[in-house]
TrEMBL record:
Record organism: Sellimonas intestinalis
Domain Damage-control phosphatase ARMT1-like metal-binding positions: 3-277
Pfam families per the UniProt record, alphabetical: ARMT1-like_dom (PF01937)
Taxonomic placement: Bacteria, Bacillati, Bacillota, Clostridia, Lachnospirales
Record-given protein name: DUF89 family protein
Length: 289
């Protein structure tokens, strides 16, 4: 999805979240807001919002002198979910359709997002509730069929914390398809609370997948900004599971790849595009593939 005036609010909200997190002095705050507004006033609407958000993030971190201001917050949510990992795994295994339960759990975890307009309100009981919640777009049966003939799966991660739930879902996938090769894509540089190599290793993702950095600091997967190695892996994957709205926004124009999008709808623009309600859970096949 290309940049749209509605996307400006998410960019500006990110500025104020960092201001509140860092406790910046008023003069620094004014300078930061002024520079971001100046940048956004000349935003290229032929680019995706994921690209623009990545550029906004570069500007923010340069001005505050900290390349990863959310480092402690990311660690906190990774730790929180790791502490609940065994309990969540047991809950999945108690459901008759464990695959679908793990899928819904992974999508429900997409609410852990410090970049969207929605405030962080992750409560464990809400996740359990979402395990039984109907998907507003449900192509999970098609995903199962595709996995049956897949040899190499590329799973694109999104936010910290929820990556523990990705790990549980990948466990369920590999349980069904033990000969499947799984690669887990992470950001090449810190950007908001998105998963990096360090975060993925913290939750033990290497036990279920090979972790691959994409070489980019965009908030999503902007393919022309990723490394040649990542582009080759993306191109040659039999199937891509794309997690989160940022990855959807940056890949939704991709017409020649078998992609399934797992996300929670977080804004009105994506709600209109997908014809589903805000906060609705989605498992959707790429309509262009």
């Amino acid at each position: 999805m290309l940049m749209h005036p509605e996307c400006m609010l998410c960019n500006l909200n990110q500025v104020y979240r960092v201001i509140n997190l860092m406790g910046l002095e008023e003069e620094v705050e004014k300078q930061l807001v002024s520079k971001v507004l100046a940048f956004l006033s000349e935003a290229d609407y032929s680019r995706t919002n994921s690209h623009i958000m990545g550029e906004t993030w570069k500007l923010i971190t340069k001005e505050i002198g900290d390349p990863d201001p959310y480092a402690r917050v990311k660690e906190k949510y990774n730790t929180l979910l790791l502490q609940a990992e065994s309990e969540l795994r047991n809950a999945i295994l108690q459901v008759e359709n464990s695959f679908l339960a793990a899928l819904r759990l992974a999508v429900a975890g997409n609410q852990i997002d410090f970049a969207g307009r929605r405030e962080v309100s992750f409560i464990l009981k809400e996740v359990y509730h979402c395990m039984e919640q109907e998907l507003v777009i449900d192509d999970s049966t098609g995903l199962l069929r595709e996995l049956e003939k897949t040899r190499k799966l590329l799973y694109l991660g999104d936010n910290c914390g929820e990556i523990v739930l990705d790990k549980l879902f990948i466990e369920m996938i590999r349980k069904r398809y033990p000969n499947l090769t799984v690669l887990y894509g992470v950001r090449g540089r810190p950007v908001v609370n998105d998963v990096t190599l360090e975060d993925a290793r913290m939750v033990g993702m290497e036990r279920v997948a090979r972790i691959i950095e994409n070489g980019s600091g965009a908030l999503g997967t902007v393919l022309n900004e990723t490394s040649p190695e990542f582009q080759e892996i993306f191109k040659t994957a039999d199937l891509v599971i794309s997690k989160g709205q940022g990855n959807f926004e940056s890949l939704s124009e991709c017409r020649d790849q078998q992609i399934y999008y797992l996300l929670m709808i977080k804004c009105e623009r994506v709600s209109r595009a997908l014809k589903g309600p805000v906060n609705g859970l989605v498992c959707m096949r790429n309509p262009f593939s």
